Amino acid sequence: MVQQDYIPIGTMAKLNGTTVVTLRHYDRLGLLKPQYVDEATGYRYYSIQQNARLDMIEYMKELGMSLKEITSILESGDITLIETMLAKKNEQIHSQIRELKLRHDAVERTIASIERYRKSPVTGTIALEYIDRRYIYSKPCYQNFYEGDISSFEKVLIDFRHGLIEDEVPQFHTYNIGTSIKRNDFSAGKLIAKDIFIFADHLLSSLGFEMKVVESGMYACIYTDSYDNEIEYAHRLLEFCHEHNYVMAGDYICEILTEFTVFDDTQRGMFLRLQVPLDFSSKLV
User: Fold this and answer.
1) Model pTM?
2) Which domain holds residue 268?
């Protein structure tokens, strides 16, 4: 016989903002058993006091716990297990926050790169620019792709991205790619690939990755909208520095500001900023 203070399953669901299906599932898991089940109809009834248990289940779900974890905690009756589970969830949440921050920064860099492209000088223009400090995650180039064509660069890029996957670097960082040539080699007119790298936020180091710093400063830059122009334009940039007696302060960098593969599926379309850091410290003496 159903007691007057028992609540039908439908009413219980409505009072707690859940569904009958959910309550039946909790019953099967042993999370929340009804106070009474009518043997004739199989209908479930609950008491008002069981709202507390349901509140706790929903609270734990909001904290990101799975129903399996919640079942384990509630069956154990161990408060220390709850604390352990919450500490674990807390770390997971912090990890997700770091991941979202890195993703957010990657999106902002991509937007900034496209904006720089839209506002950049026409291809072939040489200019002096101040560039802020940047952080990179790099690997050595084991092949000098300057001795071949764009296919050689594509092979180096594939190997680099495979390395990033092995290192578990988030793939959304692989949009903004750069390559470098040693200062002494470039100054002598030798185009020998040194490193290939991604530009990334320094927060990537919080995930255990060893980041390098590209210092801020004045750079001699030249822009091109074709990979095939890099060698010619790199020599133009070198001649410009020699003509003006500029002292190079670091390695030559080729930065892919943005790609347009989405518009042409036959080849990788790139807009490049070739750059060399300059040393004007003598002017401060």
Assistant:
1) 0.65
2) 98-284
- Judged against a pLDDT cut of 60, whether residue 34 lies above it is answered with yes
Q: 219 and 271, same structural domain?
A: yes
The mean pLDDT of 53-66, rounded to a whole number, is 86
Q: Looking at the 3D structure of the chain, how many domains does it have? A: 2
Vertex 69, ends 89 and 22: CA angle to 5°?
Answer: 115
CATH number of the domain encompassing residue 217: 3.20.80.10
Residue found under tokens 């990979």 = 227
Tell me, yes or no, whether 62 and 116 share the same domain.
Answer: no
Q: Is residue 92 part of a domain?
A: no
Q: What are the residues whose beta carbons fall under 8 Å from the beta carbon of 28, sequence distance 6 or more?
A: none
- % of the chain beyond a pLDDT of 90: 44
Residue 1 has pLDDT above 80, yes or no: no
235-252 burial string, b = 16+ CB within 10 Å, else e? ebbbebbeeeebebbbbb
Distance of alpha carbon 254 from alpha carbon 35, whole angstroms: 71
Confirm if 174 and 137 have CB atoms less than 8 A apart.
Answer: no
pLDDT band at 261 (very low <50, low <70, confident <90, very high): very low
